Amino acid sequence: MLSVEKTAPDRVDIRFSGKLDAEGMEDGLQRLIESSKDMQSGKLFYRITDFAIPEMPALAVEFKYLPSLFQLIGKYEKCAVVCDTDWVRKVAEFEGMLMPGLTIRAFEPEREEEAEAWLES
């Protein structure tokens, strides 16, 4: 499951759980792009539980959207990732080192309130 919700003019919340199929990926990415249209100095809040690598057709959909996704990077300044999987948190923070202008911090689920406070600081 992938849900995307614009919760404030400068914030998008994303929930990802379990295995994602092509239809779910397409729907989620379209909603992310639409939610980010007028975003400036934005914040992303990811909550990831029971992570499973998406199905191959879902990854193909993501590759199709890569040009649009790269354009979104400049619209966001901060990203908090709350995840129950250690290696996903590490990869998220590593990605943050590769994206100029976007700071990514990862948190364990029991630190969700801390993640929220950091994102809003």
Automatic annotation (TrEMBL):
<dbReference type="Pfam" id="PF11964">
    <property type="entry name" value="SpoIIAA-like"/>
</dbReference>
<dbReference type="InterPro" id="IPR021866">
    <property type="entry name" value="SpoIIAA-like"/>
</dbReference>
<dbReference type="InterPro" id="IPR038396">
    <property type="entry name" value="SpoIIAA-like_sf"/>
</dbReference>
<protein>
    <submittedName>
        <fullName>SpoIIAA-like protein</fullName>
    </submittedName>
</protein>
<dbReference type="InterPro" id="IPR036513">
    <property type="entry name" value="STAS_dom_sf"/>
</dbReference>
